[in-house]
Amino acid sequence: METLRLFRHFTVDSLGLLFKGDKYYFAWIGFLLLLIAAGGVAYSGQIRDGLIVTHMRDQVSWGFYIGNFTFLVGVAAAAIMLVIPAYVYHWGPIKEITLLGELLAVSALVMCLGFVLVDIGRVDRFWHIIPMIGRLNLPSSLLAWDVLALNGYLLLNWTVVTYLLYCSYTGKEYNKSIVIPLVLSSIPMAVSIHTVTAFLYNGLAARPFWNSAILAPRFLASAFCSGPAILLVLLQILRKTTRLQVKDEAIFKVAELMAYTMGFNLLLTVAEVFKEFYSNTEHLVYIKYLFFGLKGHNGLVPFAWASVITGAAAFFLFLIPKTRTNWVTLNIGCVLIYASVYIEKGMALIIPGLTPDVLGDIYVYRPSITEVLVAAGIFALGFLVFTLMLKIAVPIMLGEFTSSKANPQ
Amino acid sequence: MSLPPFRSLPLLLAGLVAMGSVLAAAPPPSPVVDPQDIQVPKPPFTEGIFPCTSCHDPKTMPANTKRRPLEGMHADIELRHGPESRWCLDCHDAGNRDRLHLVGGEKIEFTASYLLCGQCHGDKLRDWRVGVHGKRTGMWNGPKLYLLCVSCHNPHSPRFKPLKPMPPPVPPDQIRARRTRP
Amino acid sequence: MSNESSRPKRMTSRGLKPAGTRRQFLGGTLAAVAGALVTGCGKEGMEEFLQHNFRELSKDELNQVIARLEKEAERTYGKKIRIGNEPPMQGVIYGYALDLSRCIGCRRCVHACVKENNPSRDPQIQWIRVLQMEKEKGVDLEAADAYYNPEEVPQEGHFYMPVQCQQCKNPPCVKVCPVGATWKEPDGITVIDYNWCIGCRYCMAACPYGARHFNWGEPTLPTEDVNPETHYLGNRPRPKGVVEKCTFCIQRTRKGLYPACVEICPTGSRKFGNLADPKSEIRYILENKRVFVFKGELNTQPKFFYFYGV
C-alpha cells in the first residue's frame, strides 16, 4: 500500500514537472504540438479517403512510412547498445547513460509503432494483431514476430526506466538483481528487434534486392552508426544545459567505436555492391535503378549517392583521431552519418526493393505531401515523448527532484 | 508451295503411313471422347445461307463439277486455305449441298466439320477432342460446349484474324485520390 | 447507418465457444471502446468491428455475418446481392493452364474478369495483367510491357503472357500474413477474408507475381456493373483498405463452371480443370505438352501453368 501511494505521488509529481519550464521549453513543445496537429490533419484525410492520398500504389506498395519505421527500429536498437561500451569501459555515469539510451529507445519505438499504424489500411482492425486478442500468424509471419519483439522491447525499456526513476525519486537504492538482468536482456532484445525487422524483408524471395543474407548484419551495422550519433549529440547538449557530467573521453570512446562500425558498414555495402555487379544477373536491375536509374527514371539516384558520400565522409571524420576529437568535426560527422543512414533506410531500402515491380513495371514513387506531413507528425510525437521524459528523468537522475523535495513535510 | 495433286499425294500418303506407325507404336494417352458427347454450337453460317439446298436443289441446279473461279454467287469468298488447287467441292458435297464429305466420300453434317478438318490437321483434332486446342465453355466437371474449328477459323481463310485489344490498365501514376462521399 | 443505440454490447450476437472465452472477453471490452471510437456508430458497425476470422466463425455466426453484409451491400450498391459460401468440393484441386503459343494479348480476359469479380472501377483494380514480350528475348520482364495499345494484336515479333494469381501450392503471401487473413483452401485456392485483413500489404511485397491488389481508395462500382452472384471468399464487394486477388472465380468454379477468363478467351488459350482427376484436360496438358511455371526457381509451385500448344 505504501508503495502504491508513493508511486501515485511519483506519477503526479512527475506530471507536474512537465508544466514547469522556461519559454524555450514551451516554444519547443508548442512547435512539436503544431507539427503533430499538422500530421493529425493529414492523417484524418488519409483515414477519410484511404491510402490513395499517399503515392504508394500496387507496384510500390510500401514507401516512406515503412522506410521511416525501419530506420527508427535501428535507432531503438542502437540506443541500447551504448550500454555495452558503458559497461566495458567503465566510463562516466553508467546508470545515466543507460537511462538516456532507454528513453531514446522508448521514443523511437513510439515512432515505430506510429509508422506501422499509419501504414495499415484498416487501423480500426488493429486489435487483430494484438497477441491473445487477435490472431497472430505465428510462427510463420515475420511481421507477427516483429509485433511481439517491438512491443516486448518497448515494455522492457519502459519498465526499466520507470523503475530506475522511481527508485531515484524515492531515494531508495534500486534492486540490482532486478535491474541488471533486465538491462542485460535488453541488449540481445535490441539485436533481435533489428534482426527480425531485417528478416521481414530478407525472407521475401520475390524481392531479390532484399533477399540477401547480409541484410540483417547491414541493418545492425548501420544502426550502430546512426543510433550512437544521436546519443553523442544529445550527451553534449545535456551536459551543457544540465548538471549531468559526461567525461570527454567517454564521448571520444564512443566515436572511436563508431568508426569501426562505420567501416564495417561500408565493407558490407561494398560486399553487396560487388556481388550484384560482378555476377551481373537479372537481379542487378534494382541496384541499377538505385544508383544509375533505369529507362530514364532516375529520381532515386541523387539520394543513393548522397547516402554513400555522406557515409564515407563521416567514416573518415571518425577514423582520423584528430577530427574525431574535435568537437566541430565530430558533430559534423554525427550529422553526416545520421543523414547517410536515414536516407539509406528511408529511401534507398524500400523503394528499390519494389522497383521495378515483380512484373518489370517501373513506377516512380515519391512520398506525397500527406506522407511527409504524417511522418513529420510522428517524428514530432516521438520528440515530444522524448522531451517530456527527459524533463522528468534528468532532474530525478541529478537528485534535484525527489519525493522529499517534492513533498516537504 | 502448291504442288500439283499427283506429286503431293504420295507425300501425304507417306506421311499418313508414318503417322500411323507412330500411333500404333505408342497410342496417344488421350481420353477418348465419344462423338455423341461433343456438344457443338450452330456452325457460323452467313445469315440465311443454310440450307444450301434451297438454291442448290439437285433437280433445278445440277452440280457443275468443273474447277473454275466463282462469279456472281459466293464471289466474296476468298479461298486461302492450303494449295491453290483446292476448291469448293473438295469439302462441300456435290450430291447434297447440305452436307460435307470426307476424302473417302462419307457424307457428314456441318456440325461434324471437325472430322473434315482433322483429315489434314490430325494433331489439332486430337488436341481439340481432349480440350487442349480450341475453346470450350460450360462446366469444368460437366457438360461443355465445344466450339467448332470453323467457329474461330474461317474454313475458306483459316488464319486467326487479329483483334483490337481492349483498353490497357491505368498506369499507377494516373490513379489519383478522389474525394469519397461524405 | 442505423440509428440504433451505440451502447457497447459485450459478445454481441456471438455464441459462447468452449475455448477463447477470455479472449472474447478481452476482445469484446477493448473492441467495444475502440469500436465506438473508430467505426463510428450503430449496432452493425459494432458487429462488423467485432467480427472474427472467417475460419473461426460457426455456421450460425457466418450466416448472420453474411446476412449483414448482404444488407450492407444492397444499401451501398442499390441492388440485391447474394453472398454465397459454397465449400470446396471433395477430391478437387484446381489447376490452370495457359497456351502461350495462342494468346494474342487482346485483354478480353482482363475485362471479363472485371465484369465478373466486382473490383473497384475507380481507382482501377484489375486482377489479370497481360505482358507483351519480345519473341527474341523470351520471358524477360525487363522487356515486358503491360500498357501496349496498338490497333491490332498480336504484334509482329511479340508474344503475350497474361499473369494473375498463380494459386501457389507454396504461397509466400499466406506465409507472411501477420493475422492469418489469407489462406489456402483445400481445393488449392488462396483466399482472403476481406473482413479480417488489416491492410498491411506484406502479402503484396511477398507475391512474386503482382497478383495482389490493394483498395487504395473507397472502391466504386456502378449499380449496373455489379455482379450480384458472389462468394464470401471471392467476388463480394470489398471495403476500402484491404487486399484482393484472383480466386479462379471461386463463385463459379465451386459450382462447376469455368472461370470467366476461360469462358471469354477468343483463342481458347485458357484451360482449367481438376488436377486430381487423371482424365481432366488440365492433366492431359501437363502430361503431353511442354509446360513451365513462372518464376519456378522461387519454389512457389504454382498451379497455374504456361504451355506451348503447338
Describe this structure as you would to a colleague:
The complex is a heterotrimer of chains A (409), B (182) and C (310). By secondary structure, chain A is an all-alpha fold. Chain A is built from 16 helices and no strands. Chain A is globular, with a radius of gyration of 22 Å. In chain A, 50% of the residues are buried. In chain B, 13% of the residues are buried. In chain B, the strands form 2 sheets. A two-stranded antiparallel ribbon of chain B has the order 1-2. A two-stranded antiparallel sheet of chain B has the order 3-4. Chain B has helices at 5-25, 113-118, 122-129, 149-152; strands at residues 100-101, 107-108, 136-138, 144-146. Chain B has a domain at 38-43 and 74-160. In chain B, strand 3 (136-138) and strand 4 (144-146) form a beta hairpin. With 310 residues, chain C is of the alpha+beta class. Chain C folds into 2 domains: 21-84, no CATH class; 86-310, Alpha-Beta Plaits (2-Layer Sandwich), CATH 3.30.70.20. Chain C has helices at residues 21-38, 43-50, 59-77, 108-117, 172-176, 202-206, 250-253, 260-264, 281-288, and strands at 82-84, 94-99, 129-134, 158-163, 182-184, 190-192, 213-214, 229-231, 243-244, 270-274, 290-292, 304-308. A 4-stranded mixed β-sheet of chain C has the order 10-2-12-11. In chain C, helix 1 (21-38) packs across helix 2 (43-50). The longest helix of chain C has 19 residues, at 59-77. In chain C, 53% of the residues are buried.
